[in-house]
Amino acid sequence: MEPFEHLRHKPPTAIERPRELIIVCAPLRSNVNLSNMLRTAGCCGISRVVACGNPSIHKSIARDGAEQVQLEVHRTLEPVLKELKAEGYPLIGLEQTTGAHNLHTYSFPRKAALVLGNERTGLTEDQLRWMDACVEIPVYGLPFSYNVATSAALAMYEYCRQYPQG
Ligand code: SAH
How many angstroms does the Cα of residue 84 sit away from the middle of ligand 1? Predict the structure, then answer.
């Protein structure tokens, strides 16, 4: 058998239509987390990420995600949620809540906004009120919740698995 050869910059998988998943973040503590999410969004073919507050991107972490993905910055989260809802995006909170769907069995709408919470507080009650659905990722041990960028990556992965053609 031929040895495996590492292919740098292997061409991406083509998608047939632009993705209609938007990643929306509550104000985050860490620009590292946001930058990490931009890289994942870029690789997943997701073109819009909304952040709140006053973030700055670590180019060394986001890599080409920083150019590939349109980063929209708003002061606070709730006006963004209102706007996206008016644009017909169901709001899917990625959070551990009562009544949350399990990521393993949840069918994402193709057009959706995936909303991530703050590292410390998660999605607040006020923010959760806006959600059309919540989805949680099963946790099997301490510390009982994932890092926010890791959660976003797991959910983006699952979304792409459900919509491999875009
Ligand atoms: N609830 C956490 C704090 C938030 S973790 C705690 O008790 O410490 C930061 C964000 O990551 C959350 O708001 C959510 O968007 C996401 N997250 C973390 N673990 C998750 C899980 N198991 N399921 C869904 N989202 C999760």
Answer: 22
